[in-house]
Amino acid sequence: ETGVTQSPTHLIKTRGQQVTLRCSSQSGHNTVSWYQQALGQGPQFIFQYYREEENGRGNFPPRFSGLQFPNYSSELNVNALELDDSALYLCASRLELQGGSYEQYFGPGTRLTVT
Amino acid sequence: AQKVTQAQTEISVVEKEDVTLDCVYETRDTTYYLFWYKQPPSGELVFLIRRNSFDEQNEISGRYSWNFQKSTSSFNFTITASQVVDSAVYFCALSDPNSGNTPLVFGKGTRLSVIA
Questions:
Q1: Closest by Cβ to B101, choosing from A40, A55, A88
Q2: Which residues make Cβ contacts (< 8 Å) with residue A54, sequence separation at least 6?
Q3: What CA–CA distances, in Å, run from A71 to A30, A52, A90, B101?
Q4: Are A104 and B104 an interchain contact pair (Cβ–Cβ within 8 Å)?
């Protein structure tokens, strides 16, 4: 049990629509990252938020955006959905440990299908 | 740029056999972390181990063991006496703790099937 939850579990959208995926993590997990995992591939980093500010981004277009809230929840928004956006979207929250290291906990993911 | 290569796409073993999953990484950083994750059919990534680049000691945890060879940039994972419950996709990943913005870079994964 990682304490990271994601909603919804599954989602079907039509090309061109917009979608919001949600993630909730534990108190003290100040960093949240989002990953896209296409079928048969490893997760790819989308972006990362620390204390409600984006502080890192992977090779994803601006139509992928996010928010992080003070209550340790976060959102991933995708506009103008494309068929290639169909994937498992994983949220990961990070707990900073002493000495500069950290533990990262993943949620169960949201399976997005774009038709 | 960082890169993780898992050359074995799929491995199939009979229960109780030992199996080693290979991981080779590339990075220009001198400080980094290496990870292994297990992804069962449910989809959630399960953390198995994190190893600091300065710690080359091999580690054993029950039936799991990890062999970190900095000289060959490899971080291999061995499951001893495999069980059906070990069937999953296993990912090796790399991170750079010097930059708080640098996320985990994942390999493409190795699908392990353990047959009863």
A1: A55
A2: A47, A48, A66
A3: 10, 10, 19, 21
A4: yes
> Given an 8 Å threshold on Cβ–Cβ distance, is A43 in contact with B44?
no
Question: pLDDT tens, position by position, for chain B (116 residues)?
Answer: 789 999 999 999 999 999 999 999 999 888 888 889 999 988 888 889 888 888 888 888 899 999 999 999 999 999 999 999 999 999 999 986 554 445 678 999 999 999 99
Distance, in Å, from the CA atom of B64 to the CA atom of B57, rounded to the nearest integer, reads: 14
Q: Name the DSSP letter for residue A41.
A: S
| Distance separating the N- and C-terminal Cα atoms of chain A | 33
Interface check for A36 against chain B (CB to CB < 8 A): the answer is no
Which H or E run includes B24?
strand B24-26
**Are A109 and B44 an interchain contact pair (Cβ–Cβ within 8 Å)?**
yes
Q: Which of A41, A50, A55 is facing B108, going by the closest CB pair? A: A41
